[in-house]
Amino acid sequence: MDTLAKDLRYAVRMLLKSPSFTLIAVLALGLGIGANTAIFSVFNGMLWRPLPVKDPQQLVAVAVKSRTVDFPLNISYPDFQDFRQLKTAFSDLIVYTPSPVNLEADGRPERAWVELVSGNYFSVLGLEAARGRTFAPDEGWVLGKDPLIVLGYKYWQRRFGGDASVIGRAVQVNNHPFTIIGIAPERYRGAYYFLEPDFYLPITTINLLDPAAADYLNKRDDSGLRVLGRLQPGITPAQAMAAAEPTERRLAQEFPDSHKDFSLLVLPELSARPEPGLGGFMSTAVIVFMLLVGLVLLIACANVANLILARANARRKEIATRTALGASRWRMMRQLLTESILLALCGGIVGIVFARWAALALMSIHIPTDLPLRLFDLRMDWRIFGFSFFAAAMTGVVAGLVPAIQASRTDLADTLKAGGRSGASEGHHRFRNGLVVAQVAVSLLLLACAGFFIRSLQNSAHVDMGFRVDHTLMLNVDLGLQGYTEERGQQFYKQVAERVRALPGVRNAAVASYIPMGYDASLVNVFPEGQAIDEKSKIETAFYDVADAQYFRTAGVPVIEGREFTEADTASGPKVAIVNETFAKKIWPGQDPVGKIFRTEKTGPPIQVVGLTRTGKYLFLYETPQLYVYFPMAQKYSSGATLFVYSAGDPGLLVTSVREQISQLDGSLPVYGITTMDAHVRYGKPLLPARLGAMLVGAFGLLGLILASVGVYGVISYSVSQRTQEIGIRTALGAQSSNVLAMVLRQGMTMALIGTAVGIVLAFLLFRGLRTVLYGVQSTDLATLAAVSALLLTVAFIASYVPALRATKVDPVVALRNE
Predict the structure, then answer these.
(1) Residues in CB range of 193: below 8 A, 6 or more apart
(2) In whole angstroms, what is the distance from residue 761 CA to residue 755 CA?
(3) What predicted TM-score, i.e. pTM, was given to this entire model?
(4) 66, 159, 213, 341: which one has the fewest Cβ atoms less than 10 Å from its Cβ?
């Protein structure tokens, strides 16, 4: 320990003696470590940070699998109650689902988001109220009882100013009195990573919030509830799934329409993020982004290694003298490694600061939705500090090991004989040049990846999504929050659409339940008429929307065959639907779908297909073609809907006048989610993954370019300083400035050209791993590779030109006198 303390003190003194070297090295490492820490913190918050509850490692997510759907589904409330009885597998299960409500307190209404939860929600998670209490064991289990609220801590602070006297106070939720009984813990932000609820209500109050949903908790086919649970001690997820098989068989016999080929899926809670079934995609994303940002750190390491090599060469006399006085080779290596690790640790501290700035920038990203989204939970914790420390320590070893070995091989006799003036060996030069070539190659690789992601974003923005993106305004209302009956709701939607169509600058207006590629979606079963369905048959499912007669013209969803909905498609008339091409090809291959009949329940009313649309994008930009069906609003009422307004000019200019028309019909109705379709596509769910990918990888490429240019400049500048005598002699013998300039530039551009060639080869290889996260980009995208190569070579030329220009100004008399 005493020797280590001496090494540290000596390292500090040596670093303080070279402030310029220390500052450049710390900043380079800080950029590399900071970028890695920032990306690690993104994935840490999203995938690896456990919920702040009791024994979070024991939590499991519970979903269901079915042959009819390619991805896991959530669970219905009756199924939750059945699986909760599996006491040999689960100690207990909880259910929760987000929902919008209208809360009114102090005469001020506002739209809020809640988690509807089972009565045992807080007790199973081991959460105690920060103020007041949570739900008692007998609360939250009987339909229509216990209208109680547990406020989220953040909402309590924002809406009620942190006033403790709100405990016991009554407020109106969807025009029904609820009593506030407690405040959730400050650090707890809900069980669903992407949504932070404002408060928590018993799910059994759903009929008080929306009378139309009174039967929701009794429906087996309404699988919209998320479930978490705790396994019994010693039970694995696989054993829990095996224990559920008898229950699955019973449910399949009792409810064949909804539970055929139905099985339980149990995953550790961390493995089910962000959704069950997406673990493979997220693992790929983690590997790709951590590898890319790791390349930035690799360039930083090469930069610092070059700096250390140059500095070690300047300290050859010192190292030789210490060796002559008895210092061993290992002692000298350890001293130099101590300096590099100390540099890296300082770089780690700077990196945390950079990472925090990057985190604040990411958290400031706005998405046009009223959902309480929290895409980036970038709070600092021990994992982030531990990662930074580990990255800094490893960086110090990687950056300092080879220079330490090289420096420890100093030829004692030659160095002392030359008085410390001897330059670096040819091996030193080759190694330093090799580091620069590697920096340029990796930098081009990062720039190529950035170019691929940017090209992917451009391709994504111009893909035909199946609906109109421009000149469309969207406003959302939920009549269920105001207690509207179906009859009143139908009338309201008809009137508001007619009023808005009459406004100046409006081409058309329509009402529909869902926004294309929005945050909500619903499924229906499909039973084609005339096709026998037995126990072995696969029941097809389709996503659906509910729309009025003007929707297809307003939203730019063309009906290519048959007809659109009309005012004649009333609740008392024949049931009709419009399907997309994928639906038609899957259900009636090779046949004309118009006029075909299907049902959404085996014994339900027949529904006739009256129109056909092209297949568009409904859930995600990169989705496989989905079965999709539209029903008339008059025949399948939805209390929550979106008003689409097709404008002649800027749709944003219509917001005030459209809101005024809604207010004239109902002044107390909250209007939310006001945005344009263009903003939704560009900044919301459709293009958000592509935009974030382009932004992050672009930042990596920029950092790599900066560090590589610094590396080229450093090597050429050092080479010029080492060749001062040679340049002086050449000049004295008649060499022109242009000759000297060309000689120095040749050295820098040779390294840059070799590194560029290697980088292009690496870019072709890496593209194979990026195919799954890029859209419409070919591995032979020569335009992108040519553009980034030209950019890198231009920067390398500038980095070489500055020291080359300085070399032309060497005075031969001064150079020879100094030597």
Answers:
(1) 46, 273, 274, 374, 377
(2) 10
(3) 0.71
(4) 213
